Every structure is written in C-alpha cells, then in structure tokens.
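Hallway conversation turned thread

IA: we were arguing at lunch whether anyone had actually written out Cobaltochelatase CobN subunit end to end. Turns out nobody had. So, for the record, here is the sequence (1329 residues) and right after it the structure tokens. Reply here if something looks off.
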Amino acid sequence: MRISVIPVILLMTIMLAGGVSAADNSSNVTEDAIQQNSSHYSILIITGSTSSTKAIVEGYKLAGRDGYRFNLSMFTNDELLRNDPQIDMAALEAGRKADVILIQMISSPNTLAKVNPILNVTGARKIIAIGTGNTFKDDPRVGADNATVKYIWDQGGPENFRRMMLLLLRDAGMQLRNEENVTAIPAVKSFVYHPDAGEQFTAWDRYYSWYVQSGHYRAGKPWVGIITFDTYYRGSDMRMHTAILESLERKGYNVILGFAADTATKRNLIENFFLDGNRAPRISGLITCMGFNLYSGDPLNSTAILTELDLPAIAAVYASNLRAWNESIAGLSSEVYWQIALPEIDGRIEPVMIGGGVEETDPQTGLRYTYYVPIPDRIERLTERLINWIKLRELPNAEKKIALIYYNIGGGKDGISASYLNVPESISNILRALRSAGYNVEEKSTAEVINILLGPGLNVGSWAPGELEKVVRAGAVTVPVSEYLNWFSLLPETLRNNITATWGPAPGNVMVYNGSIVIPGVMLGNVFLGPQPMRGFGEDAADLIHSTTLPPHHQYLAFYLWLQKNFNAVIHLGTHGTLEWLPGKSVGLSSLDWPDVMIGDLPHIYPYIVNNPGEGTQAKRRGYAVLINHNIPPMVVSELYGDLSELEHKINLYHTSEDPQRKLIIAEEIRNLTVKLDLHRELNIDLNTSFEEALDRIEHRLDELSATLIPYGLHVFGEPLSGELLDAMVEAIVSFDPASRNNTEFRNAVREKLATDQEITNLLRALEGRFVEPGRGADPIRIPDLLPTGRNSYSFDPRLAPDRAAWEIGKKMADDLITDYLSRNGRYPESVGVVLWAIETMRTSGQTIAMVLRLIGAEPVWDKSGRFTGISVTPLEVLGRPRIDVLVTISGLFRDTFAYSIDRMDEAIRLVMKLDEPVEGNYLRKHYLADLANYTARGLQAAETLAGARIFGSAPGSYGTGLPEVVESTAKWDNQSQLLETYLNHMGFIYGKDIYAIDAKEVFMKQLSNVDATVQVRDSVYGVLDNDDVYQYLGGLTMAARTISGRNVASYIANTRFTPRMETLADFIAAELRTRTYNPKWIEGMLNQGFSGAHQISKEIGHLFGWSAVTPDLVQDWMWQKVAETYVFDPQVSSRFKSLQPYSYASTVSWLLEASRRGLWSTDSATLQRLADEYIAAVNEYGVVCCHHTCANMVFNSWVVKLSSLNQAALRKFAAAMAAATGKSIDVPGSGDSQPGSVNGDGIGETDEPSSGSAGNAGGASGSSSDGAGKSSEVSENSGASEGSGKAYEVAASTSSTSSSTQTPIYAIIGVISLVCLLGAGYFFQGRY
C-alpha cells in the first residue's frame, strides 16, 4: 500500500511543479532566486512631493527585508533645480540604468529641462507619470498619467510605496513571490489627529469626547482649526503641524488638527469638524498648511466655504529646502505660486513661515529623503497673530484699541497723502463709522483732522528741531528713551547692529526731543491717529547714492513697537506706506526681516487702491495685510480749454471757409495760436513750409487731447459715486469697449456697482476678525467685474503672463516702436531698454513680457492650461527685420513676484543670442559674442553668464532705483553725475534662471552703452507725473543710456490705456501736462478735494522736477513757465490753492525756483523774483513747510532771499522763521548781519551751507511762534469752494503776523535800497544758476 502511493505522490509533485512553472514564472521561486533576479532591476523616482520621500525610503527598506534587492534612485524637484553638477550627473546615470522611471508631480519648465535629458538617455522598459496633469500626455515616451499607480501613491505610507515599486518592477519583468500582494491598502483620507491620541478621528463627537476626557479641553475658550495634506500623516512627517497645535494649546486654545487629501475629503473635514450640524462655525480661526486652492482648482467654491466660515484663514507657508531659505535673501521662490498666489485668490491671508524641509541620508540605504521641521519663533509668530485676530472677534468694539495710520513719509507739512485718496476726508469717514459701530472714539470733522495732521500729527526731519518742539507742545505722544532701550535690547543682536551701524547708538537723532522719542499723533478715545514714521531718506546718516539698503531708524522701530504694545489692530490708510518695503527677504519672512519685526503680531488692515495689485501684493506678503481695496477717482473726458479750444475753433473755421483771403487770415491766426501754445515745439512741426501737413498733425493732437480720460479729483474711502460724476464714470467704463458695453443693461449694472459701498463695511468686518471676500486687483475701467470695491485684492498666477491678448498687444507695441525708430533714424535700434514692473504685468497680463519676446524675434508657447512655458523662435525670413537686443530693467517687486517670468525670459534671451545666424540679423548675438570675447580674454570665470545677462534690477532685499530719495532731498546732490551713480549702484544686479542678484555694475554699463531706445507701458489712470516710479525707472534708464552711450537715446511710452499706440515720451508727458496739469477741469477736480487735492498738485510738480533732473531736455522751458502761470500767477487758482493747502502751495513754488536754481529752467529775472516773493510771503503768512527741499536746503533758502524784492522786514521775518525751525541762519542782503531769528541753544549755522540735518537733542526753539513765524495754522471750511462739492477747506493765515505797512520809515528806506541792490544782483547773477 505504502509502496504504491509513493510513485503517485512523486508524479503529482512533478506535474504540479511543471504546471506552476508554466503558468507563472514568478511563483514558488526560491528566496535566492528572488534576490538574484531583483538585484538586476533598478527603479528611478523623480518626485515633486518631498513629503513622501521618507515613506518611500521606508517602503524600500521593507522590500529589502522581504528579500527584494532591486536598486532605488530618487531625486526631488528641489534637488534637480539646484544645478548641482554632481546631482545632475547622478540623475542621468540613474536614468541610464533604470528599468522603470516614475515621474510624480513634475510639470514646471525648469524641472522639465532637467527631466528631459534623463528621458533621452534612458533605456527604461516603463516610464510612468502620475500627478503631472497634461505635461506628458503627448510625449510618446511617457503618455497619460497612470491611474492605478497614482491610486497606490495617494494611499501613501511605507507599505503602499513598497507595493507600488514591486508592481512597477513586476511589469518591467522582475520576479515576485506568488503570494505577493501589490494592490493598494486604502487609507483614511479625511480625519482629525492629535499626537496624544492613538487613533484617527473621523467623527466630531468621538474627537470632542476624547478631547474633554483627556484633559485637553479648555471650557469657554475658542476652537482653532488646522488643515493640511494627509501625506504628512502617512509619511509620519507632522512636526510642523503638531508644533502649531501644541503652541495654541499652551496658550489655552482648543485645537482641531485635520488631514485631507483632495477636494472631497477637505469638504468632508470642514463640514464635519469645522462646522456644526446647523452649518454654524465651531472654530474661530483657521490655519491652512496647504497650497493651491483650498478646493483644488475651484477658487469660487473655496471662497464660498471660507465666506461661510467667516473667520480669518491664515495660509501658513513652508520652504521645500529650509537651508536654502535661510541662506537666501529671496526667501521662498518656487513655492510662491502654489503656496501663496493661489491661496490669495481664495481669500486666505498672511503667508507666515512655519518651517521647511531638511535633508537626511538614510544610513542603511544611502538614500536621501526630506522631512519637515518647525521654526519655533515662526510658529509663535503664526499662533500669536491668529490669536490676535480671534481677540478682535471676542472683544466688544468699545474695548478695542485701534491705530489709524496715514503717510507723511518725507516729513513736512506738504507731504501728507496717499495715491488718489482724499486722506483727511477718508479719516473723518472712518472715525464716524467706528463711532457708529460702537468704538470708543471721538469723531472729527475734516477741518479738525487737518489740524491734527499739521499739528501734533506731523513728522519732522532732524533739520527742523524748532518744528519738532511745536509738534510735542501740540500734544504728540512721547516715549522715554529708557523705555525704548528696554525694547531695543530684546531685538536680535544682528538687527541692533544693523540699525546702529547707520543711525548710531539708540535713540539716534530722528524725532528725539528732550530725552524722549516723539510718536506724532493723538489719542481720540481708543483710536490713535498718527503718521507712519519717515524712512529717513533726507537725513544726513542716509547715504542714498552709495547705499542700496537703508535700515529703519530708531524712531521708526520705536513707533511700531509702541503700537504692538498698545493696540489690538492697525490700519494703514491708502497706497502706500513703507513698512512692507523695508529690507529683508522678499517673501516667507524670518525673525530677522524688518517688515516682520515691525508688524509683529498686530492684525493689519490696509485700505488700498484697487488698480495697484502689484504693490498691494507686497503689503499682503511682506506686511501680512488684509487689503480693503478702494476705487480709483472718477474718470472724465479731458476736453479742450482756453487757447486749445480756440485753436480747435479756428481750425474748424479754416476748413469751412470758402473765401481764400479769409482762409489766409485764419491760417495766420492758427500759426500764432500754435506758437503761443508751444505746440510747434511739442510736435516738431514747421508751420510755414507745409501748413496743411502741420495742420493735420495739430488736429490729430487736439483730438487726442480732447478725448483723453483724466482723473477728476480723488476718491474718498467709503464714499461711492453719485450724480454727474457717477454718470461720467459709467461712460468712461463703457468707452473702453463700446462694442460690447454700449447698452442699457451694462450701464445699469455698472452704475449699481459704482453706487454701492463695501469699503467701510468690509473695513469693519476685518476689525471684527471676520472673513473679507477676495477680489481681483486691476483697473475697473478695463475690468468692471471687480466692482464693487471693498474686497481683499489679489493678483494672479504669474505663469499665465503673457496671455494671448497681452501677446497681441505687446507684439504690436514692439513692431510700432521699431517702425517709428526706423522712420526717424534710418536704421533699426540695436538694443531697446525695457522697464518691467509687477504692477503693469498684473494689470495687463504681461504686455511688456510680450513686447520683449517680440523684440528678440520669439513667440510664447503656452500649455493647455494657458501657462507660458517657453518660446518658439520666429525665423528671420518671417520676422522681416533683425532681432533687437534688449536690456530689461525690473522692479524689486517684479523680482519678488515674477521669478517664474524672469526664468522664462532669461531662457528665451540666451537661446536667441546663441542661434547660428549672421550678427547683422541678430543683434543679441552680435553683442553677446563681443562681450564674451572681452570677458573671456580678461579671464573672468563667469564670462558666459555675464555676456548673456540682459535682466537687471535692484540689490537683493532692496526696492527702487534710489533716485526719488536723492532727487527730492535737494541738499544731497549737486549734479546729474551723482544721480547717475545712484542709479547704477542700485540697478546693476543681474537676474535670470538660476541667477539671483549678481553685483555686476560694469556689465550693466556695457549693456547700457548699446541701448538706442527705452520704453515702458502705461495702461491705467496713472501717468508719468502722479507718481515718482516712472521717472526713477524709465527716466533713470534713459539718463543712464544717454550718458554712457553718448547718444541721444529715444524714449517711448507704450500707451495701452485704450487703443494701444506707441508714443514718444516727450509727446506723452506734454499730453499729460495739457490734459491734466494745465487743464482747468483737472485743477477744479483736485481743488474741490481740498487739502489732499491741493497736495496732489504739488506732488505732480515735484515729479516734474524729477523728470527735469534725470532728463533735462524732456521738460522744456515753456512747460515750467506754464506751471508758474497756471498755479502762481493766476490769482484765482493761487488764492484758492493757498487757502486749501498753503504748504503744498509753497512747496510748488519752491520746486519752480529749484528748477531754475539748477539751470533746469531758463526764465526771466522778473519771473524768478516774483516766485521768490511768493515763496517768502507764503512762509511768512502760514509758517515754514519744512520738508526735504525747503527747510532741509538752506542754500536754496539763502538764494531765494537774494532773489526777492520784498522789504527788509519781510526778509528778516522769513529768515527768523527758518532759523526758529532749523537753528540755521540766513544772510539778509543789506541787513549787515546774518539773521538767526529768535533761537536759543546750539546748532545755529553761520553760513549758507545745506543743513546738516542733525538735531542734537532737539531743544532749539524758544517758543517764539507767537511772533507769527510758523504758528500752527487754523483750518476752517472754505465758503468759496465749488458749489455742492463739500470737499474744500481753507488753511487760514496766522493772525499774529505783523504787517510790513506798520514798520518805521527807516525800514521803508532800507527796503528801497535793498530793492535796487537786489535788482542789480539779479542782472549780475542771471543765468549763473
């Protein structure tokens, strides 16, 4: 029996073995066979998900313990982007050896540039992509995303990654055990976790019960929600998130830490934990530690759920590589679009850093992985800021203390403003609204607000110690220096040294009085009203020409530390302040970055003009601000006026007249009017040789001027449009696109939005710690859908610029520039200098980027999502002209927000310059080859990088060209060479792909020497005079190119406001002067806005001076003369101007005088004498202005005294006022001695040298304001304002001034003698200044 069974068993065994072997060559193999077989296989994983790397390594180790000996290589997106040659070589070698390549979450062009070479050399049997969208869909090597593998990856954890790798390798031929399970283990995708609990909570009741029973619950305290990706849980990488939880719990708050994978699971988490059964919020604050839209790809529903939660939602951010972040002044870079830009679209706020990735090498496998660690001080910053927002929800309004901050950045009585905002009326509106909402605050009328602004709420430079004493006596707040020193000592040593190196030991000399630091402003109940501190640009300690960064001074720091210790929230009113522009990282701030230090833990609310998304973005990201966007001023049609209107009338008569003799007479009248208006110079026409041709150009110019939209006055925060201005604004919006907008339905919809106010409503919501709905920041003329204003402005995904519409416009602008230059010069420009700003890029979706691409003969390539991913080169035969070289000068804000665009442009430029083309058809190549030969011959290691550099900007951590700060501090510079040096020192830093701020001034100068033309886009209400940015960037670039090249470089404005057209800068500025500055309609609109409108006028004249300083030939004599005639010599305008803002009036006159003193304007001695008399009389009547170009420049004041025809008494009174303010004397001609005024103490100057700006301990003035020299002005409502305007207020002259008519006869005699002497001196010195 037993013998007969044995053969059967043997036979069955053989059959079974044979059958199994035939059926599955991976079954029942020996362990040795598994190990030997698997050792011949390799897998390469390229991932954009660093949070999964540790779990992948652990999964690999699990496979090894199971006997699988395959080789794993893994590279992250962050590693590939380092441009480390060793990493690049290792990745290529891994690609060559790989049997399987898995690409996960890789789509950016920069990373693809690293991945494609790997794919080109690999012999892998399988290449799989997951989570890459459409990136590889049409790539035959890869194909569409693999859903099966993606599912396993998404379940995460070491075991799932082990199974995923085995599945991929099995499909490539590797043997597995028969029983090997390679299906995914489903993961819980939506749950709450607590480090003290041993479970994942999927139901609120269960979590709440555990939380109470475990002793974590704090009765009566708010709940805080935290949400992040579930991959961190599955990768056991939750240090950052648990650190936030633990910080909040230590502070007594209840916390829900939730994990979710996708939109469905996020929704489940929010609805089951953050909302209760009635959909009322359980939580009082939300921290999101996840980028992209909250609901993936769905910003509308993301905003909707945040609106339902109605609470502050902070978007905490983290670095992929913590070491790189810590070492870089840029801060975050590749993370910006997905961690910051996209969450902003949802309405999430405050990108506070919490930690970052740290690399570790696994000792067992040698594989690198990344895990995330918290930064303790950043965790505290995050949780304290959220807690302060929650306190705004809990505190009764009557108990809240609010700081309302306006801007007086340069100091002086002429410098209180915000972009197109009526500051005092807006303040009055806000105070009224706060009072109505139950805040403990005193309401103030506009007139009362103005008195505060000019009295205790005034910034004063150290050049005017006497004025500082008045501020203190008027009731400003003071902080004892000893108290400040206690605060100062708590700062990191690095920051303390940073301040003292520039400003000296604490407390410095800015706004320091009798042992105290002055905080200008007043308490109105629980609301503080005061100015943001001056930046200190006008101070002697600030070396503006050579220094690219300027730390805040002691009083600046003291001001914000005082706010942090005394208030629940701060409001910065209007566009824009300086806090968000202080030195430090661009985004993702550390504890050593000045904006973070200043704002501290204070909730920050920032009313901001809606059409400036770029600078608003800076306030959000570096100032942690919640923006409340406000409308632009009403826009109206310019129309013609005065002699322009008469000229149009004469031209119409000329065309309709049939009498030849009459036509000749009218033609002569037209010639005379044209000459009178200086149009012949402006248009460069000859009225005698070709009258009909000249007439056609004049008519065309008049048509342009009459149809131009101009701002009519300013906006008042919280005051929607009504009446005629509402109608005019509706028509302005319709005129942008009449084809689709010229209908009743559209008009009614826009009218309703313009008449709706959400500005005050949402300001109050923010102060209550509630959610503020996001809205796009853009020009409402172009995009009326963004109305009504009052929303939290956001910009857009930088990868979308340029879009297709912007490409078409930018292409046309480039072609038009080349055509115009060719027609004027008979040759093509070899290089064009381009100004590139973030603001314009956001408003126009990238018109300037498009223009750059077209100039070099390239076209953008977009992916299926509309993202700009690269270029295609336009063949020369299609282009029909040479490729034009470019020099792109970027703003610091563009550097911070458009790093992606910089990479794409740099790639395009370097690609085009290396095309194998004749240099006469490729000017980029021509200049590149010459520079490369030069730098190589000199032995420069970075010759290739330097020769190809075309993108330049400001120093890392700094902003701007430095020009406005120098130009407007007129005592700090003597000639244009100093302005040129300033520009070159600030802007000579190279940027590009993998290039960040190489200091290369010489290379910058070499590129400037090639420039034949410069250009900048203007696209909105802003022109070239209402801000200082255009003259500092376009003007600075033009000045530098002209000086260094020695050529008369052409300068253009790409005017894309309506129908895009290329204009010369000269034409554009002349048109702006005619449609705005000289236009009675524009003047009326501004003066109807009272104090702020009058200041806007003086600000624009100051910017005209800036243009004159950097491009003297641009601002012609007739332009300055017309300013004088319009604002000073026209008694109707000048009297009203003075009554509304006498200090801005005096400032305007002083700009005219300074232009002449520097030889920028040539006029007759009578005009100068009249202006000098006006300036001195205004100071004598109202008091000193004491800004950076008046009191701070005593050489100027001494010069003015010598010009004046006023009597000795008036001149001595002026000198006394200046001495009382500054402690410096002025020689009064004919008086026999210098006139120091009534001053005691130290610091009275003996010569006419510029003020040193050193105030000592600021105790100089003896209170002699009772004699009328600079007494605080009284303000009253202006009965002479335009009917119904309700916006104009007069600043009355000091009533204690002594009339010159009461002087004794001897003074009259001396006055006559002085007049004769002054007239003689005027003739003698005429033209010498």
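OS: looked through it. DSSP finds 54 helices and 39 strands in the chain.
IA: good, adding that to the notes. The first strand starts at residue 42 and ends at 47.
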